[in-house]
Amino acid sequence: MSGLVVTVGQHGGDGVKEYFELQCRMVGRRFRDAGLAPLLACVVLGLAFVGFSIVLFRKTEFAEYVYVCSVLMLVGRLSESRRSEFLEICFGDAGLRKVRVVENLVCSSPFIVFLLCRQFFLMVVVLLVAVVILALVRFRARLDFVIWTPFSKKPFEFSTGFRNTFYLILMAYALAFVAVSAGNFNLGVFAMLLVFAIVSSYYTKLENEYYVWTYGVNARGFLLGKMKMAMLFSSSLALPVALLLTVFFHRDIGMISLFFLAGLAFLVCVIVSKYSAYPNEMNIAQGIPLGLCLWFPPLLLVLVPCLFWKSEKRLGGLLK
Fold it and tell me: Where does the sequence pass through the membrane (predicted)?
């Protein structure tokens, strides 16, 4: 971020153009650090996105809702308050809005293009309006109270993550009630998996090495503890949806249980993926296997043990 301040100061003006040039260079650097040529990586990711989207739209009739939720979650991460405050310092209020509108449109453009190809024109309009409004509206109010969370400070992922995404959890619960009222089992399963997807996003942020060291256990104990608490707390959030589906779709209890376990397994996979690269962030090499697991969940049975072993080695020097 300090490089951004220098860039804006050197070029004068609002610095928005220089900001996006800097972001492009940073993305290219991340690809090169992962051992991939930026152009090749973009082509591969584009093909993977198209392939995954085609499979998604063939497998479920609610793929467009998956798209909208995915975009809103992505845009929500870009709207983090500290990040917005920093951008406002650099560019001013007008520059901030310009940056946020462009960012939101760029991030949502692959989804919008595919929805247009599938002729979901109404959903495209809804998505465009939503991402622009989220870019323009500023949630400046500082509340004098802290949003209550059923989770303790440990693990920190849930206490902070829940406060930032509680509205998405409520949206998942609302989808579950809509599924029950419409008698649509697939939508209900999607609502349950959406809860696990939201929780999985809690584990994409790296903590300082000091906070890992303070646990005072070995690497295996640390990982098992993380996995145990993640499964316990995520189950408490997803269980209301699962129970609701069980009551109204009791004939499909086997499928409900299977998807519930798949959601837990994917969450565990995200955790071990995170620490398999620690103290570095997850790169393309870790992201591709996770994407493949979404397409073919049985891969989790192989990927989780492998990543757990790699995470143990990574954390071994820090936790003894």
Answer: 35-56, 120-141, 161-180, 187-204, 229-249, 256-276, 288-309
H helix count then E strand count, the chain: 13, 0
Q: Which residue has the tokens 């440990």?
A: 154
Are 169 and 237 a contacting pair, CB within 8 Å?
Answer: yes
Q: Which domain holds residue 194?
A: 150-320
Question: How does pLDDT run across 212-245, given as a tens digit for each residue?
Answer: 666 667 777 778 888 888 888 888 889 999 999 9
Of the CA atoms within 13 Å of residue 69, those in its CB half-sphere come to 23
Contact 188, 247 (CB under 8 A): no
- The total of structural domains in the chain comes to 1
Is 290 part of a structural domain of the chain?
A: yes
What whole-number distance in Å separates Cα of residue 279 and Cα of residue 273? 12
- 213-218 contacts, C-beta under 8 A, 24 or more apart: 213/318, 213/319, 215/319, 217/319, 218/319, 218/320
Closest CA to 66 of 127, 133, 125: 127
d(CA 315, CA 320): 9
Q: Please check the confidence at residue 250 and state whether its pLDDT lies above 50.
A: yes
Which pLDDT score is estimated for 11? 46
Which has the closest alpha carbon to 77: 173, 198, 175?
Answer: 198
